[in-house]
Specification:
It is a single chain. With 167 residues, the chain is α+β, with helices and mostly antiparallel strands. It folds into two domains: 2-43, no CATH class; 60-152, RRM (RNA recognition motif) domain (Alpha-Beta Plaits). Helices cover 19% and strands 31% of the residues. It has four helices and eight strands; from the N terminus they run H-E-E-H-E-H-E-E-E-H-E-E.
């Protein structure tokens, strides 16, 4: 009824609650507004415990990206290898990565034996349409005096696939 009042075309087929969480099956892919309406509805159902209810979210897929144009060694010429922690800090400070959730630890790989440049492999969670990933692909950003670019990548078997391995 609430979805209909909001002029949504989405119908809720059923709601299931167990120890793991609450599952809602809908007739169509929902928008963020639909999720908000469904969450408020569920909070008013007497026999569902919503005390630990998280923010509702759509099904997600993993998308694979790479950042190129970053030196392999730190900027102070100390020959100190650039770490995934260094890159993580750079990403946190850049607004193009707002609302991006990484699926695993960043991987810093040297382009070649004689090169001083690296490729940063990042895997992100995104809704199935890939709107966040599409928004990042071909974006440039500065890292010190270097201009980097984000490209689409294929799945990297060397990168951990465990969702809880990196926080």
């Amino acid at each position: 009824m609430l979805l209909r009042n909001a002029k949504s075309e989405v119908l809720v087929d059923f709601i299931w609650s167990d120890q793991i969480g609450i599952m809602v099956v809908t007739s169509k892919v929902v928008l963020q507004l639909d999720l908000h309406i469904i969450k408020n509805y569920i909070k008013n159902i007497a026999n569902i415990d919503t005390s630990g209810m998280e923010v509702p979210r759509l099904l997600q897929s993993k998308f694979y990206l790479k950042i190129i144009g970053i030196p392999y060694f730190s900027h102070d010429n100390s020959q100190k290898r650039l770490s995934s922690g260094d890159i993580k800090n750079i990403i946190k400070q850049n607004q193009i990565f707002d609302n991006v959730v990484l699926t695993s630890k960043l991987q810093v790989i040297k382009v070649s034996l004689k090169s001083d440049m690296s490729i940063i492999w990042i895997d992100i969670w995104d809704i199935q349409s890939g709107s966040k990933a599409k928004g990042l692909i071909n974006q440039c950003f500065n890292m010190e005096r270097y201009i980097t670019i984000i490209r689409k990548a294929n799945m990297n078997p060397g990168i951990s696939q465990c969702k809880n391995c990196w926080k």
